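Thread amino acids onto this structure.
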């Protein structure tokens, strides 16, 4: 009987720790979007426009990590914004690899930052930052009803999503 009670208590503690870890990683993602936004705004202040890239670019998404920035010319997003990240750009705390991570797209006057396929509980973010790509959030699971879990920050034409 004592062993059963200890087992039950241990499972409750483990579930609580898992939830706390998820909230912590999602809080790191929310902070990263602010850091990236600030770097993009500083870049625009120095260069007169936001980084220009014809398709998605990324710090950590393997599908887009090598996308070049068109103007001014830079090998990738990390190179274009390195001046604004002395310790290096933010990386997703879960380091998911594959098609997931922090994405950017911009045309010089407008831009969008997308945390793609890594947020673990969409309820940890303000509903205004949940990407329209999500198709709504399931209240009990915290997952998107359709599409990948994604959070965004947009400026200009991207203010309503990207």
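Threaded sequence (162 positions):
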């Amino acid at each position: 009987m004592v062993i059963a009670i200890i087992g039950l208590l241990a499972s409750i503690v483990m579930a609580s720790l898992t939830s706390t870890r998820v909230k912590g990683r999602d809080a790191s993602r929310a902070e990263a979007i602010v850091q990236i936004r600030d770097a993009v705004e500083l870049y625009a202040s120095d260069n007169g426009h936001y980084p220009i890239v014809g398709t998605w670019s990324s710090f950590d998404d393997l599908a887009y990590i090598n996308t070049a920035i068109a103007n001014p010319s830079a090998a990738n997003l990390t190179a274009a914004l390195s001046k604004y990240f002395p310790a290096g750009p933010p990386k997703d705390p879960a380091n998911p690899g594959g098609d997931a991570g922090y994405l950017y797209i911009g045309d010089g006057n407008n831009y969008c930052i997308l945390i793609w396929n890594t947020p673990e509980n969409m309820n940890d973010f303000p509903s205004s930052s949940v990407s329209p790509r999500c198709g709504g959030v399931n209240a009990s699971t915290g997952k998107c009803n359709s599409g990948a879990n994604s959070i965004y920050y947009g400026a200009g034409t991207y203010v309503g999503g990207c």
